[in-house]
Amino acid sequence: MKKFITLAAFASLLFSCGSGDRGELMGGVPGKEWKVEKPHGMSLIPGGTFTMGSSNEDFLNAQDAPTRTVTVGSFYMDETEVTNNQYRKFVEWVKDSVVRTRLAIYADEMGMAKGSGGIGEYAFVEENEPENQTPYEKYMYDNYYSMEMSDDMYAGRKINKRARLPISKKRYPDEYFVEVMDSLYLPASESYNGMSSFDVSRLKFKYSYMDIEGAVKDNGQDLRSKRSRHTKTEELLIYPDTTRWIKEFQYSYNEPMHNDYFWHAAYGEYPVVGVNWNQAKAFCAWRTLYKNSYLKDRRQSHQVSSYRLPMEAEWEYAARGGLEGAKYPWGGPYTTDEKACFLANFKPTRTDYAADGALYTAEARSYVPNGYNLYNMSGNVSEWTSSSYDASSYSIVSSLKPKDTNTSNPIKVVRGGSWRDPAYFLQVSTRDSEYADSARSYIGFRTVQTYSGPNVVQTARGAR
At what angle do helices 175-184 and 84-109 cross, to 10 degrees? Predict the structure, then answer.
């Protein structure tokens, strides 16, 4: 009898007219489409098929870019290389977090809490207080964040982002605050021009990511342990290596570039350089975190696709700008227009760096963009890709959305040529390489984001 009553109750629940859907699948109502938000400063690169590789003479006899038909999906790409202004925002965010974390730790050591004044106003946020959290937040704090998650006893504790940091030293609230700030800044005797500056060796960014490919290949049955085994954590210094301007040109007077290029407002819209492949990858992780934090603060449920470095095939496809068989992003075969004006920032002759209008780098939106509204895909600075370099990789990669085949290879593909390169390296098919831990005064990067939405495909046009 009990079984009959239970089944009847279950049936009445299933077929209740109060559900409003009349037993139909009403979740996908026609007309309610996914709205694609175009990321700021990025262009949509419609997917398609193109001939990847070089059809021109191989002057260096590299034999590493034979022609191959490849199809890529749609994605967004930065219209310009990442600029000093944009990378400084990353540096300032990390700096702010470092300062607040150190203040919170010192306040904790001194037994000072919010409301006690002084450094106590920067103490860790105690989210386990019922009035400050939702049931979900309380559960997560009690079961995860309040436990020691690493060798750092403060891991998982939330820093106070609301308390304003005083700009003027005269407004430092107490001697404890002064002591913390003094420990994070170089003494005047060790600083440029005798002015105290932040100790950049403390600017470390820590992030985690999932090695999806490794997890897929793992035959273990415990999904939770698989996830933990393949969650990777990276921690690295993120400040650009400004010394490259001097080390790479020992007989040139490049001290002003070393001192001013990254921080001076005059170079704000110039491409950032001195950033190695690992730092570029960390910037992508931070940019994803930064955008998702914004969406979370506004209680938007969706998250953006991760920002990342472009795969080599994506980079070349985007550089061609929709032109099939083009030698350069603008077509070719020349590097000047009908008025004999150079179309990119590079070294036209053996000793003439200034003939193209720029001595070193140029502003990120200099020269004419290609068909996808991308600036300086050739010249200005070479660009990191996510792909590892292998001279024979074209013969083994997939023809559909080819990705890196050897992620452990420390040599990464660099594309596009730079302000110090001859025209050969400006060709969209020319491959170059550099070690992932190397920073150069002529290598920068731009980011991409996978397009989430209806498939967008474009047929390539002939080269001009």
Answer: 130
Q: Is the pLDDT of residue 13 over 50?
A: no
The CATH number for 60-81+268-275+311-464, chosen from 1.10.357.10, 3.90.1580.10, 3.40.50.1580, 3.40.630.30, is 3.90.1580.10
Q: Is the pLDDT of residue 165 over 90?
A: yes
Q: Phi and psi for 183 in degrees, rounded to 5?
A: -75, -20
Q: How many CA atoms lie within 13 A of 110 on its CB side?
A: 24
Q: What is the pLDDT of residue 331?
A: 93
Element (H, E) at 286: helix 277-297
| Cβ atoms of residues 127 and 145 within 8 Å | yes
Q: What is the mean pLDDT of residues 259-270?
A: 96
pLDDT at 353: 87
What is the Cα–Cα distance from 109 to 438, expressed in whole angstroms? 39
| 95 residue type, one letter | K
377: three-class secondary structure by DSSP: coil
> Can you give the pTM of this predicted structure?
0.87
Torsion 64-68-73-76 (CA) sign = positive
- Using an 8 Å Cβ cutoff, are 460 and 48 in contact? yes
> What pLDDT is recorded for position 5?
46
Give the domain ranges of the chain: 60-81+268-275+311-464
Q: Kindly report the CA angle at 197 between 196 and 199, in degrees rounded to 5?
A: 125
